[in-house]
Amino acid sequence: MRIVYFGTPGPSAEILKLLLEQKYEIICVVTQPDRPRGRGQKLSFSPVKEVALRYGLPLEQPEEVKNNAVFRSYLESLGFDLGIVVAYGKILPKEILAIPRLGFINVHASLLPKYRGAAPIQWALLKGEEETGVTIFKLTELLDAGPILAQKKLKIEEDDNAETLTRKLFALGGELLLESLPKLEKGEAEFIPQNEAEVTFAPSLTKESGEIDWHKSALEIHNRVRALYPWPTAHTFYRGKRLKILKTKATVPDLKVKLKLPGTILEIIKEEGFVVATGAGNLLVLEVLPEAGKRMKACDFVWGYGLEVGEVLPS
Known about the structure:
Layout: E1 2-7, H1 10-21, E2 25-30, E3 35-37, E4 42-44, H2 47-54, E5 59-60, H3 69-78, E6 82-86, H4 94-97, E7 104-108, H5 120-126, E8 131-138, E9 148-155, H6 162-186, H7 218-227, E10 235-238, E11 241-249, E12 265-269, E13 273-277, E14 282-290, E15 296-297, H8 298-305
Parallel strand pairs: 1-2, 1-6, 2-5, 6-7
Antiparallel strand pairs: 3-4, 7-8, 8-9, 10-11, 11-14, 12-13, 13-14, 14-15
Helix pairs in contact: 1-2, 1-6, 5-7
């Protein structure tokens, strides 16, 4: 079975390596163009490109896939059977989806039809879900709306954030892909239409998504911290400077205080961090990243920056 693989970030690169280790015939890899990254804005390869180069695979990096006759003609010339898309970052037009004999399948990090869109992992955490999963489905013109080939569930642990959950889900997605490909190859795959009545969406997040509103409940803020790590990262402001909040705990036992304005520093807990009043409940901040500083334990921030009980973080 001749496969063309579309993908870009690290988790996608891991699935590509898995397919290559299992001796699947990847005849071409398509990834995003090289982009400037970091403080020096040095041109960098995508992780998927790095894998393709390491294995000596043919590589394509089109700036655009829509209305790109040259790219489409190249794909048509390959005579491939299946396209696999894992976090490629561009929507494929119908004229490309129609090229391979078996069509295109996608590995999506949610239990479709829930959380269609670019940020399913983050939105599952934002909404406080206790369970998520991966879905392999056939790509169609509509966003994440194609029929489902396979799904697997995954429990969301209390200490999961978007980074840890991404690793787990893409590892699970790789396993599910290996289980599904033989069925496709043998013509035994069964696709089930999605239930449109159960659709929810997971739109892209922005840097502005990270600002903490202390009037929200402790649990909502805790979930935002988890969902937005490592990007764009939840943040507040302390004495006029941005303070990124990296790790929190929503339940603070045995803390007896009167109601305070949300954002008020209620207590400093030695060797742990500081407690902040919220719209409902209190939040223990465990790790932070000060502006122009380094990641540190919240208790070290307290002593290094002079945080005091009674100070108020803005909403």
